[in-house]
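Bit of a strange request maybe. I'm writing a small parser for structure token strings and I need a real example to test against, not something I typed by hand. Could someone generate the tokens for this chain?
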Amino acid sequence: MDHQSDHITHDFPPFFRVHNTGRIERYIEHDFMPPSKHPNTGILSKDVVVSLQNNVAARIYLPRTEAPDPKLPLIIYVHGGGFSVESAFSSLYHNYVNSLAAESGSVVVSVEYRLAPEHPIPACYEDCWAATKWVESHSHVGQGDDPWITDHVDFKRVFVAGDSAGANIAHEMVVRSAAESELGIKIEGLILIHPFFGSGNTTKLWDFICPETTGLTDPRLNPAAHRNLLSNLRCERVLVCIAEKDFLKERGVKYRQALKNSDWNGLLEFFETYGEGHVFHLLDPDSEKARLLMNRVVEFINKEFVPSAL
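Reply from user aminoacidic:
Good idea to test on real output. This should exercise your parser:
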């Protein structure tokens, strides 16, 4: 009888489904890959707790360098997965971020945030903001406690990046840095890879994991509908990457156009991969097109740039 009474009340493939008993069943269960020294790239990685309040963790990646005290770019990276699956500690993201750190020569802080639906939105935003604030604390003498950050990061070259839902969260971190005026560092660049900004006509998943949403007009879901929000982005440059066959492509294009038409005075760059779908570069990282996408991101990070006086 108990078995018969257990039934599915909400189903959101390919992410999760919910039973009437409250049990959450995920379609994708991620693995765990421990931090290590990568045998090919020489990248060192380790896990840290960045906020005790919600036990927010992150994995830090440190490139191998020849200089005794190098100052390197810093990337705060946010993984994707519909706000509800995947992990900064999975093999999928560990391998990708390892390559990103090696190719770009950057220190990377990959954030492990709480997942929906057990932790509804805004939990993911709060956790990533806590990680961003933790990174920022290291820019003040005597405050930061991690030598990988204090000894090796150039705080004038900070980037926030993510893919899919992670790109959504990354965008919100840059928005929040302006709105809350709490961030003591200026973000140079925002990198959005196949960003999730809704599908344009439905918000079923979003409505379920974000109980306090305003639906299609929610600025976190659809920032392109809020010109003032885009005009106040607190970064110098933005790179928007889309894929031709991605079902989220049109919202990325719309975001790019809205940012272009706003009063934001930064530099906007755009890169489209033809013939590929959503986050193809994670699924086939050794393909030629994945390499081209990685090269474009690395070029954006390492491009010589003179900040504005504003």
